[in-house]
Amino acid sequence: LDDTYVYTAPLTAEVLEIDVTTEGWGRITEKASGGATLQTDTFTRFKAVEIDATGGVDDDTVKLLESLATVATNGLETLSIKTGAGADTIDFSALAKADQFVKVTIDAGTGSDTFKAPKGDNTFDVTGAGAGAVDSIAFGGVESLVANSGSDQFCLGPTAVISITGGGGSDTIFGADIAAGVDWQISAADAGDATA
């Protein structure tokens, strides 16, 4: 096995789609904002894959379209996604659940960035400003979390700063570790703020 496959997105690609070929190889498809396919890259037999979409200041979208379990059987252990200065979206909403076969790290960089969660019941541990984890997915630089169809739990640590949008399930927010002096305000059905 080779150690790391590094993919650097071209400035012309605004959407990157990650899926698996029928042969069990990982595939990255570059698309323009209008949906036209620009290029396709494949990878296999790497322990780690790094996707670098930090070039430029455009709003980029990175989508994981299916589980990487098949690619993991060929040795893949980690997937790293880095985005740049735009209002980027990292979209895992097509997944049935968080991928248990490959550990994922997201560094969303600067800008107002969004992470869309997989289906199923997820537990979000928000440990700091835009940082935390959901199952095997660690994230940083994320300003907004969007839940999916499951019954999700959002656990806010004492320095958590993030926007949360619930999904179709029965979602719950916990703030037991937040220090006294936090003001919880319910502004409407299923809406509100917690501020220190």
**End-to-end separation:** 49 Å
Class inferred from helices and paired strands = mainly beta
Averaged pLDDT, please?
87
Report the total helices. 1
Question: Could you provide a short overview of the structure?
Answer:
By secondary structure, the chain is an all-beta fold.
Spell out the key features of this protein:
196 residues, eight-stranded mixed sheet, mainly beta, nine-stranded mixed sheet
Can you walk me through this structure?
- This protein is 2% helix and 47% strand.
- The protein has one helix at 69-72, and strands spanning 2-8, 15-20, 26-31, 37-43, 46-53, 61-64, 78-83, 89-91, 103-107, 114-116, 123-128, 131-134, 137-140, 144-146, 153-156, 163-165, 172-174, 183-188, 191-195.
- The radius of gyration is 17 Å and the shape is globular.
- The protein is built from 1 helix and 19 strands.
- The longest helix is centred in the middle third of the chain and has 4 residues, at 69-72.
- The protein has 196 residues and is an all-beta fold.
Task: Summarize the helices and strands and which ones pair or pack.
Layout: E1 2-8, E2 15-20, E3 26-31, E4 37-43, E5 46-53, E6 61-64, H1 69-72, E7 78-83, E8 89-91, E9 103-107, E10 114-116, E11 123-128, E12 131-134, E13 137-140, E14 144-146, E15 153-156, E16 163-165, E17 172-174, E18 183-188, E19 191-195
